[in-house]
Design brief:
The protein is of the alpha+beta class. It has 21 helices and ten strands. The strands form two sheets. Strands 2, 3, 4, 5, 6 and 7 form a six-stranded antiparallel beta sheet that branches.
Length: 690
C-alpha cells in the first residue's frame, strides 16, 4: 500500500514540477526580454532542466507502478496485469491514452533540455530566448494535460488487485517497445524548428539565420518520423496477419500528414538558404507540420476515429483541438504581421532549374497531404453535418496517391541534375543521359521477370531513373573527395533518395503482385499452391494464466518448419493471429492460421492462409539506407557561405534591433544568387569540375 501510494504521490509531484517550471520559465524569459536582461534570460535553461527532472520522475514512478503491479492506480488497473511479461509491462505505459501523453511529455522535456543546453552560451539572444518561450509553453500544455484530464496517477477502484493488461495487439511483438518512442521522437521533434520559426517571426529576423539553427533538428526529426512509420508498417506486417504494411487507416494517415509537409519543408528550405526565396512558404510548411502533429494527436486520442491504432475516447480532445486552433491563428497572424519582411529578394529565373524543381516537388507534396487529409477527415465532416457515418476506403487513397507518387519519382530523377537559376537543354541532356539508361534497364529487368501493368512498370522505370540520378551525383562527389564526398546535406540526401526509391519500388511490387491462397491441410498430406509445397506436421496447443496458444507446424518446401499461431488472451477473450514468415531477397512466403477457426491441439487438419509477397525485405533495407543517409546529411560541410539576410545574425539582448539592422545595412549586401549555408547545395558537377 505504501509503495503504491508513493508511486502516485511522487509521480504527480513530478508532473506538478514540470508544469510549475515551464510556466515560470516562460514568464521569466518573457520578462527578461522585455527588460533587456541577458542574465535573467539565460536562466531559462535551468527551468528547462527542472522540467526534465520532473518528467523523468513521473515516468520513473509510472514504470515502477507498472512493474510492481501497483493496482492502487487506475491506469495500472487498466493496462497492468500479473500475467503480462515484464517487457510488455514497460511498453504498457504508452498503450493507452494517459500513458501516451506521458510519453509525449518526457520526449518533449528531453528535447527542450537538449535545446537549452545546446544554446546555453546564446541564451541572451532574443531568437533563442523566444524559441525557449515557445518550447516551454508547448511543454506546459502537455504537462497540463497529463496533470489534469489525462492523469496517469489517478486513484483506481478501491480494493481491486488485478488488471487485464495491455491490448492483446500490444503484447505479442517486441516492436511495440520501439515503434511508439521512435515515432514520438519524430512527432515531438518538429517542435524545435517550429519554436525557432515563431521566434524568427516575433523578432523580425525572418531571413536564413533561424534556418541554420534548426536544419539538423528538422532533419533528425524527419528521420525519426520516417523510421517510426516504417516500424509501424513492420509491426502491422508481423502482427495483424493480413500481410500488408499500410492500410490507409486514419491513424496511419495522421502520422503520414506531417511527414509529407515535413519532407516538402526539408527540400524547399534549400531554396531559401541558396536564393533567399520561398520564405512565407517555408514558414507555412513548418507551421503546418507542427500543427498536423497536434491534429493527428487529436484524431488519435479524442475517440472520434475508429481504428485498430486509436485510443479509447478520452477527455483531452477538446484541449487538443483548441491548442491546434491557437497554433494556426497565432502563426498566421505572425506571418501577416511580418509580411513586409518576408518578401523574397529574388524570383525563380526559370522553371527548368533546381529551385523550379523544388517548387514543383513542394506542390506535389502539398497536394498529397491535402488528398490524405481530406480522405481522413471527410467522414468526420459528414457525421457532424448530416449525422450519418461514411467510410473513405483504400481505393480513394490508392487512386489519387498513385499519380502523385509517380510524379514525385520523376522529380527525384530530374532535380539532382538541374543547376540553380537556369538549365540549358544541352547540359540537362548530358546529366540525364546515364540516369535515363538506368531507368530503361530497370524497366527491361522488370519486364524480363514477368512484371505487368502500366502503373507498377512505370514505377520501376522511374525508380531506376531516379536511382541513376542519385548514383551519378554520388559517383561525381566521391571521385574527387573519396568517402568524404558522401558527407553533407546534398550527397547524404542522395543516399536518403536511394532508400526512399527502394521503399517505393518495394511497395509497388508488393501491392501489385501479391498472390494468396487458402489451404485446408491434413496432417502428413502435402499440398501445392503458388509455386510452393506445404505439409502440416502437427498442431500444438499450450496454455498458461495469460493465454492459450495454438500453433500449426507447417513444413514449407520440404526445407523448414514454420509455425503460424492463433492466440486467445484469456483476460480479453480475443483471438489474435500471429503469422509466420519465410523472408527472402526476392519474396516472402507469409503463413497465417485463421483466428477463431476452432482448431485445437491434436486436430488432424487446419485452414492456412498463404501469401506470396515480392520484395518485402527491401522495405526494411530501404529504411536502413534512409537512416544512414540522414546521419551523413546531418554533418555540416567544411565550406560555408554568408546568410542571405544580414538581419539573421544574433542580436544581443540590451541592444536595439533597429540600430543593429541599420549598422548592417551600411555594409555591402551579399549576392543573393549564390548564398546558402552549405557547399553541399552546389551540384557535384560544380565541385568536381565536370
Amino acid at each position: 500500500m505504501l509503495a503504491a501510494s508513493l508511486n502516485g504521490t511522487i509521480g504527480r509531484a513530478g508532473l506538478l514540477l514540470v508544469l510549475a517550471a515551464t510556466v515560470s520559465g516562460a514568464l521569466s524569459t518573457a520578462y527578461a526580454i522585455r527588460k533587456g536582461d541577458a542574465r535573467m534570460s539565460s536562466q531559462s535553461r535551468w527551468y528547462a532542466l527542472l522540467a526534465l527532472l520532473g518528467a523523468v520522475v513521473a515516468v520513473a514512478m509510472m514504470q515502477r507502478a507498472l512493474i510492481t503491479r501497483d493496482f492502487e492506480l487506475a491506469y495500472v488497473q487498466q493496462v497492468g496485469s500479473d500475467s503480462t511479461p515484464r517487457i510488455y509491462n514497460i511498453a504498457a505505459m504508452w498503450s493507452a491514452l494517459e500513458g501516451s501523453i506521458l510519453l509525449w511529455l518526457i520526449v518533449l522535456a528531453l528535447l527542450v533540455g537538449a535545446v537549452a543546453w545546446r544554446y546555453r552560451a546564446r541564451a541572451g539572444d532574443p531568437l533563442v530566448a523566444w524559441a525557449m518561450i515557445v518550447l516551454l509553453v508547448v511543454t506546459a500544455f502537455f504537462a497540463l494535460l497529463s496533470f489534469g484530464p489525462a492523469d496517469p496517477f489517478a486513484a483506481g477502484v478501491p480494493g481491486r488487485d488485478f488488471g487485464r493488461g495491455p491490448n492483446p495487439l500490444l503484447q505479442n511483438h517486441i516492436l511495440v517497445l520501439f515503434h511508439p518512442p521512435i515515432l514520438y521522437l519524430g512527432y515531438v521533434g518538429i517542435t524545435v524548428p517550429f519554436a525557432f520559426a515563431i521566434a524568427a517571426l516575433v523578432t523580425g529576423r525572418v531571413g536564413e539565420g533561424w534556418l541554420a539553427e534548426t536544419r539538423r533538428w528538422a532533419l533528425l526529426s524527419w528521420a525519426f518520423l520516417t523510421l517510426g512509420i516504417l516500424l509501424g508498417g513492420w509491426w502491422s506486417y508481423e502482427v495483424l496477419g493480413w500481410s500488408g504494411v499500410w492500410a490507409w487507416d486514419p491513424v496511419e494517415n495522421a502520422s503520414l500528414l506531417p511527414w509529407l509537409t515535413g519532407t516538402a519543408y526539408i527540400h524547399s528550405v534549400m531554396v531559401q538558404e541558396r536564393r533567399g526565396m520561398l520564405r512565407v512558404w517555408n514558414l507555412s510548411l513548418l507551421i503546418a507540420t507542427f500543427a498536423l502533429t497536434i491534429l493527428g494527436t487529436f484524431l488519435t486520442r479524442s475517440g472520434v476515429l475508429s481504428s485498430v491504432h486509436a485510443f479509447a475516447a478520452g477527455s483531452v480532445g477538446g484541449y487538443l483541438l483548441a491548442f491546434f486552433g491557437v497554433i494556426v491563428v497565432v502563426s498566421l497572424g505572425l506571418i501577416a504581421w511580418r509580411g513586409d519582411r518576408l518578401r523574397a529578394p529574388g524570383l525563380i529565373d526559370s522553371p527548368v532549374s533546381r529551385e523550379g524543381a523544388f517548387l514543383a516537388n513542394n506542390v506535389m507534396f502539398a497536394l498529397f497531404a491535402f488528398v490524405v487529409l481530406l480522405g481522413t477527415v471527410f467522414p468526420l465532416i459528414v457525421e457532424a453535418l448530416q449525422d450519418r457515418q461514411t467510410i473513405v476506403g483504400a481505393p480513394y487513397f490508392d487512386r489519387l496517391s498513385m499519380p502523385i507518387g509517380l510524379v514525385l519519382l520523376f522529380l527525384m530523377a530530374v532535380a539532382p541534375a538541374l543547376p540553380w537559376r537556369k538549365a540549358s537543354g544541352e547540359v540537362l541532356g548530358q546529366r540525364l543521359y546515364w540516369p535515363a539508361w538506368c531507368g530503361v534497364g530497370a524497366l527491361a529487368v522488370a519486364v524480363a521477370v514477368g512484371a505487368s501493368g502500366w502503373a507498377p512498370l512505370l514505377a520501376f522505370g522511374l525508380g531506376g531513373f531516379a536511382a541513376g540520378a542519385a548514383g551519378r551525383q554520388l559517383v561525381l562527389a566521391t571521385r574527387r573527395q573519396g568517402w568524404r564526398g558522401l558527407v553533407g546535406r546534398t550527397n547524404g540526401g542522395m543516399i536518403v533518395h536511394l532508400g526512399i526509391i527502394i521503399i517505393a519500388v518495394a511497395l509497388a511490387a508488393s501491392n501489385s503482385y501479391t498472390r494468396s491462397a487458402t489451404l485446408t491441410l491434413d496432417v502428413g498430406t502435402p499440398a501445392s499452391a503458388l509455386g510452393h509445397t506445404f505439409e502440416l506436421e502437427r498442431i500444438v496447443e499450450t496454455q498458461d494464466e495469460r493465454a492459450r496458444v495454438v500453433k500449426a507446424e507447417v513444413l514449407l518446401d520440404g526445407d523448414r518448419v514454420y509455425r503460424p499461431a492463433s492466440t486467445k488472451y484469456l483476460q480479453f477473450g480475443q483471438d489474435i493471429g500471429t503469422p509466420s514468415v519465410r523472408t527472402g531477397v526476392t519474396k516472402d512466403v507469409y503463413l497465417t492460421l485463421e483466428p477463431g477457426s476452432g482448431v485445437r491441439g491434436g486436430d488432424r487438419d487446419a485452414v492456412i492462409r498463404v501469401f506470396v509477397k515480392p520484395l518485402i525485405l527491401w522495405l526494411w533495407i530501404g529504411g536502413g539506407i534512409v537512416a544512414f543517409g540522414t546521419l551523413l546529411a546531418a554533418f555540416p560541410s567544411s565550406r560555408r557561405r554568408r546568410p542571405t539576410d544580414p538581419a539573421s545574425a544574433p542580436v544581443p539582448v540590451g541592444r536595439s534591433e533597429e540600430r543593429v539592422a541599420a549598422e548592417r545595412a551600411a555594409g555591402e549586401r551579399p549576392d543573393t544568387s549564390r548564398v546558402g549555408t552549405d557547399s553541399d547545395d552546389v551540384p557535384a558537377e560544380e565541385l568536381t569540375g565536370v
